[in-house]
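> forwarded from #structure-qc
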């Protein structure tokens, strides 16, 4: 007779923490198919805590996809579709076997759309349809023992079906859009050139590429205009201080020269001193977008990398759930307890913690944004022990931001001094922090540059050391960086907090964009321009945002997923019928630039031995890639090994030590690194030591 409760978790680390929180020392670690799981007894029942490995199931077309559109899809094991997911097979087999002995089920995956879909698919396809009716749901925002036990005590009696329905709808729409439009693009190039082409598009990906393309074209069309800048270098008590002309830019050269001519006097007189004091309020708690933006500013981490580091910190029970859009910290998380625990971690934290707790009842400065599932990101107070460099940096940023939201406003004084030379007005500007307030807690992350001016008074004269007159040109609008485009996607309601960073990563991997100051490739521009010309709906951010709103409505029970999916099919049918009518035209416009882009992506630079082109080559025997010379057939056998994984980008420069081309290797979720091609180069001596 069955008498076991199966608790399904998202990852092995989560399963371990949940088992120990619920069972303590009574939680016994077991293994099946090399998959760790835990047995314990609670409330008179035997319990089995088993992990998944993220998504164990994914959507796939039921029949071979020879044409488009295709809407006949079903959920299949991820390992059957993606070779990279091969490790998930043993998790599927283990859960299926353990489910045979279970008659009660608890889903303890992350409480968000993806976590809910993971739990639902495991129950449906590994535990049987009936398990969905019996299953309960645990909801927690941290993996601390206290929160896990509370989630079990306050367990939801049924699954979170609204989240599940919204998740199924999102996966379905993304599959319909991505697979069908990508198939249409690839088929159009193949029809026009009789060559296979792998092009991709997506419901959120393509509108995002359109935003980047619009900025790229704006930069390309930009025509600089000349302007002139007039400044003074003043001697103030032996210090050289710059004074800026009241008119910061002169677009009329004659006017600029007349102003310069008026500055013949060597004496400047102070006409007015304005002192203003203002308070800088403390920041609001981090949501995921805010954390990604700040981590890029402080450390240069891409949004994808920040998301993955934050997820690791969450799984270690050091921070709350990071994929949140909330900027609020409910008092139920017990600020005082967390502040005390943080104070025990280090001396610098202790000083801040003691100061916050000694002044008043802690009350955070909160933002407007909310999230129905999770609060803002906050540290749990658990001791972090030993962390990797990136984890330590991100953890410190999160802790100091948490401290800062309880801080007092900073008091800043700004000084504006108007001086005149030959009736031409100039300004000296100073700034200093009078009271640090929360800035002291945020440390180097909130550093404010101070410009301290000596004591000055109205009527005082200053010596003009030099008149600075410079011709400049207006600059094009700045390129998006990974953090700013993710922020722009959020502002335009494209994607979700969890999907924006992976979508951006996909644009890089498809060869549509490159660089931290994002540049759109010729292929990326042509894909957007061609689709706008023949099927503008595919790049429409309005249509994408409309479906985002509908999926939000599913999540709160206002709309049924079937209605949204049916409407999406109708819209896509219209779009794809228009695409088919123009398939050959689209293919002709894309085929040449596709071939050119793919060829350029393989060229790494000049061969230092013969001057030929070093290209990425994949070995037929080992299937490993290497850099080979284009003059191989003409006698040059020069070659270099290449990293086995990651996207390779040529940097169009050579190593100063060995003269071989420099490349950058981008790996999902990891820091990009630059290297030359020669493995024996002196710059790699440290690498060779580590291998020994």
């Amino acid at each position: 007779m069955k008498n076991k409760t199966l608790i399904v978790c998202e990852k092995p680390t989560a399963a371990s923490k949940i088992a120990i929180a619920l069972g303590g020392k009574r939680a016994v670690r077991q293994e099946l198919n090399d998959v760790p799981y835990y047995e314990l007894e609670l409330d008179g029942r035997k319990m089995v805590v088993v992990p998944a490995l993220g998504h164990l199931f994914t959507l796939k077309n039921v029949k071979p996809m020879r044409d488009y559109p295709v809407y006949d899809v079903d959920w299949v094991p991820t390992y059957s579709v993606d070779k990279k997911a091969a490790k998930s097979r043993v998790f599927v087999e283990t859960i299926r076997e353990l489910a045979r002995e279970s008659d009660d089920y608890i889903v303890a995956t992350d409480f968000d759309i993806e976590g809910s879909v993971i739990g639902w698919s495991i129950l449906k396809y590994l535990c049987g349809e009936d398990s969905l009716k019996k299953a309960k749901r645990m909801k927690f925002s941290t993996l601390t023992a206290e929160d896990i036990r509370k989630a079990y005590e306050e367990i939801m009696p049924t699954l979170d079906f609204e989240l599940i329905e919204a998740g199924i709808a999102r996966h379905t729409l993304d599959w319909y859009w991505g697979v069908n439009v990508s198939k249409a693009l690839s088929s159009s190039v193949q029809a026009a050139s009789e060559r296979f082409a792998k092009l991709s598009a997506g419901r959120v990906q393509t509108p995002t590429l359109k935003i980047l393309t619009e900025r790229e074209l704006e930069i390309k069309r930009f025509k600089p205009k000349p302007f002139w800048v007039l400044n003074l270098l003043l001697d103030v008590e032996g210090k050289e201080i710059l004074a800026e002309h009241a008119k910061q830019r002169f677009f009329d050269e004659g006017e600029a020269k007349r102003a310069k001519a008026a500055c013949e006097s060597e004496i400047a007189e102070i006409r007015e001193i304005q002192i203003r004091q203002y308070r800088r309020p403390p920041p609001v708690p981090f949501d995921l977008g805010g954390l990604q933006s700040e981590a890029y500013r402080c450390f240069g981490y891409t949004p994808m990398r920040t998301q993955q580091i934050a997820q690791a910190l969450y799984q270690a029970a050091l921070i709350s759930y990071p994929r949140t859009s909330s900027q609020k910290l409910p008092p139920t998380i017990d600020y005082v307890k967390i502040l005390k625990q943080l104070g025990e971690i280090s001396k610098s934290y202790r000083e801040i913690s003691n100061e916050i707790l000694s002044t008043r009842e802690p009350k955070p400065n909160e933002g407007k944004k909310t999230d129905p599932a999770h609060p803002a990101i906050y540290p749990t107070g658990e001791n972090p022990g030993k962390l990797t460099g990136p984890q330590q940096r991100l953890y410190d940023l999160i802790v100091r931001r948490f401290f800062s939201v309880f801080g007092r406003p900073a008091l800043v004084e700004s000084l504006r001094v108007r001086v005149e030379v030959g009736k031409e007005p100039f300004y000296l500007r100073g700034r200093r922090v009078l009271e640090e307030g929360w800035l002291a807690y945020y440390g180097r992350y909130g550093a404010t540059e101070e410009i301290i001016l000596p004591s000055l008074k109205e009527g005082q004269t200053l010596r003009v050391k030099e008149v600075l007159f410079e011709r400049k040109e207006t600059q094009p609008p700045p390129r998006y960086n990974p953090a700013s485009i993710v922020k722009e996607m959020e502002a335009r309601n494209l994607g979700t907090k969890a999907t924006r960073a992976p979508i951006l990563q996909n644009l890089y991997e498809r060869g549509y964009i490159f660089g931290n100051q994002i540049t759109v490739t010729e292929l990326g521009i042509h894909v957007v321009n061609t689709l706008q010309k023949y099927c503008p709906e595919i790049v429409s951010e309005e249509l994408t945002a409309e479906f985002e709103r509908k999926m939000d409505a599913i999540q709160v029970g206002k709309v049924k997923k079937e209605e949204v999916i049916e409407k999406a099919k109708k819209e896509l049918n219209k779009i794809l019928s228009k695409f088919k009518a123009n398939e050959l035209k689209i293919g002709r416009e894309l085929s040449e630039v596709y071939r050119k882009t793919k060829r350029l992506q393989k060229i790494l630079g000049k061969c230092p031995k013969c001057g030929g082109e070093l290209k990425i080559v994949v070995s037929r025997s080992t299937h490993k890639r290497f850099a080979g010379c284009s003059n191989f057939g003409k006698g040059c056998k020069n070659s270099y090994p290449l990293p086995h994984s990651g996207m390779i980008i040529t940097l169009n420069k050579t190593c100063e030590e060995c003269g071989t081309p420099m490349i950058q290797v981008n790996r999902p979720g990891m820091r990009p690194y630059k290297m030359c091609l020669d493995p024996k180069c002196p710059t790699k001596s440290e690498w060779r030591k580590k291998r020994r």
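QC bot note: The longest helix spans residues 161-193. The chain has a mean pLDDT of 91.
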